[in-house]
Every structure is written in C-alpha cells, then in structure tokens.
Amino acid sequence: MSFINNWLRPDIKAINAYHIPPSTNMVKLDAMESPFLLSDELTGQYLTYLVDAQLNRYPSASANETQQTLRKLMDIPDEFGVLLGNGSDELIQLLALACDAQDTVLSVEPSFVMYEMIAKFARLNYQSVPLTNDFEIDADVMQKAIETHNPKLIFISYPNNPTGNVFNRIVIERIITSTKAMVVLDEAYYTYATDSFLADIAQYPNLVLLRTVSKIGFAGLRLGLLIATQDTVSQLDKLRLPYNINTLTQVSANFLLQEKNMINANASIILAERQTLFDKLVKINFLKVYLSQANFILFKALNANELFEFLKENGILIKNLSATKQLTDCLRVTIGTEEQNQKFINIVKSFYD
Ligand SMILES: *Cc1c(COP(=O)(O)O)cnc(C)c1O
Predict the structure, then answer these.
(1) Which atom of ligand 1 is nearest to 223's Cα?
(2) What is the atom index within ligand 1 of the atom nearest the CA of 157?
(3) How far is residue 54's CA from residue 248's CA, in Å, rounded to a whole number?
C-alpha cells in the first residue's frame, strides 16, 4: 500500500479525477472555448500594456479595476456586489466552503459535473433531481426534493451544461421563492442565451449569479464572477483567498475586456454558426439534435461511440456523453469557426454514408 493510499480520505480515493483528454493538433470542439484569437493589432497593443505589470508585487487584492471592467462588459448594476474568482469553479468551491458540515447541495441531473465534485470535496451531502425527457425541471419533483432535503445551496446552470437549454423561468422563480437555500444560477453561457436573472437579484435576496469569461473568448485567463446583493458579497468575500486573481489575469482583463464590440461581434458569429450547424445536423437522419442557448449543441447519434472515435481519428475532438445517465448515445459539440464546423459536419456525414 502506498503512503497516499493509506493517508487519503476514502471518499476522495473513490472520486474519478476530472478527465482532460489530450488534444494536441486536433480541432478542439470539446470544452466550449471560443475559437477566435486576438487580431495582430490588438495583440500588439496588449503586449505594450502588459509591460507595465509589476510582477515583483502582489496583485491588487480587491482587483477593483477588473471588477469595474467586468461590470461595464456585462452591464452589472452598481447596486449589486461582485466577487471575483480564479474561474467560476473557484466560486463554486467558495460557496461549498461557506456551508456547514451537515448541509446539502442540490442540483439537477444531468448538469455541470463540478457541482457534485466540489460538494463531495467539501464533504457536503449532494442530491440531484433528474430532468424530464426534454431536459426541463419538473417543478413538483423539485419541490418535493426541496422539502425532503432542505438544501443549503441549489445550483442551476442557466442555460444548462450539457443539455444547452434554459429552464422555464416560472419554474426557476418558484424554486427561488420556495426555499431557504441560496439559489445559484450559473450563467456561464449568458452571452448566447435570450434570458438572464441578472436584474432579478434586486428582487430575491437568496439569488446569486455566476458568470465567467471562459466561454466568451478568455478561458485562459481563469476569471469568473459571483454577482449578488452587496450584503451577500461582503460576507462571502471573507472566504476568498487574498490575491486569488493574479496580476497577469488582472492586467490582461483590464485591457482585453474593454473590447466589448469585439467580444459581442464574436458572440454574434457563434450564434449564427450555431444556427447553421443546427440546420445541417437536423438534416442528418441518424441524429436527434437538441435546441441550444449556449455555444455548443447536444445531439443523440446512432452509434455514438463509434462516431466519436471516427471524429477523433479525423482530427476532431468533441465530448462523448454517452455514458452519462439520461444522455445515452449523446455527444456534445462546441461551436467553432465556420471552417471547423464544416469540417465537423463533413466527417459526421461521411461516417453515415
Ligand atoms: C464552463 C463552465 C463553468 C466553468 O467556468 P470557469 O470560469 O472556466 O471555471 C462553470 N459553470 C458551467 C455551467 C460551465 O459550463
């Protein structure tokens, strides 16, 4: 028996590590990244700006300028508080840390896997409510689960990863108003969706939003944010590690996230490409394609595992979800550039020919 095997908590030994597949030289359509690089002109200006970063000093602890930049980019009202995280994953972890030993975290299934993983790292009780066949939340089942488990935290991805839909707003409102839990709506895909609960924070004290810049072109920065009432943010801020947003991230964000026009233009391209890709996928008989309000499309495929492998052999990496409960034979493709999407479609077609 190795040292670590004796030493480690059994529940952590039992967890399967979050698997990041190798992707060197592949068209990477597996992780909802933006396919767009900075223009040469912007890169030049960015590098000039970076020169002033003082790496001998600790970063700004409050990261005020970065907060202001994000507020402008996302039109966050001044009256709300903002808490920054090293990716929104760190903020999910911070929320789990705020819970008591016996508390329950509730989410839906299938959804973003980090809710469950982080709840378990933090030794919290994790419960999930299955979505209906069309990936909606059954309001009555949810209500029952809230009564049974009396959760402290409810995580809802809005739009939902990996299904791509936004849930019925009325159902979400009913959840928020019928629980003592903090309800965390994870709006990682807000740019690609038609609805948001940002304005609703003013109305619901137990509503907290998560957003990130990862899905809008800046996954490498590792920058996420929690938006809630000032009250909630100033208490939760005590749990944030000092200097959690490093200098390079702050300086980069302060410069690059000013480019609201570029960010919005890139999002518009993705939205148009999502429609094009959807229309093309729908025409392939062996697929069932789900509507999406995010920068990916979920589809059920005949011989999904074989199709996934065939794509990989042909240099395209997507996400295979066919082993996930309720997602049998499902694959998820991130929207790429026109050229990448066309290549993907061609390979899917040739697989079924
Ligand atoms: C990608 C994703 C995140 C992770 O965001 P980071 O800021 O990169 O940590 C959080 N929630 C959902 C639903 C996601 O899909």
Answers:
(1) 7
(2) 13
(3) 9
pLDDT digits (tens, 9 = 90+) for 78-118: 999 999 999 999 999 999 999 999 999 999 999 999 999 99
- Tell me how far the alpha carbon of residue 32 lies from the centroid of ligand 1, in angstroms: 9
Ligand 1 atom having least distance to the Cα of 111: 13
Tell whether 250 and 294 lie within a shared domain: no
C-alpha 18 to ligand 1 mean position (Å) = 13
* Cα 342 to Cα 30, 113, 219, 295, 307, distances in angstroms: 16, 29, 24, 16, 16
Q: How far apart are CA 180 and CA 154, in angstroms?
A: 10
Give residue 227's domain range: 56-258
For residues 120 and 143, membership in a common domain is answered with yes
pLDDT the model gives residue 15: 80
CB of 187 within 6 A of ligand 1: the answer is no
How many domains does the chain contain in total?
2
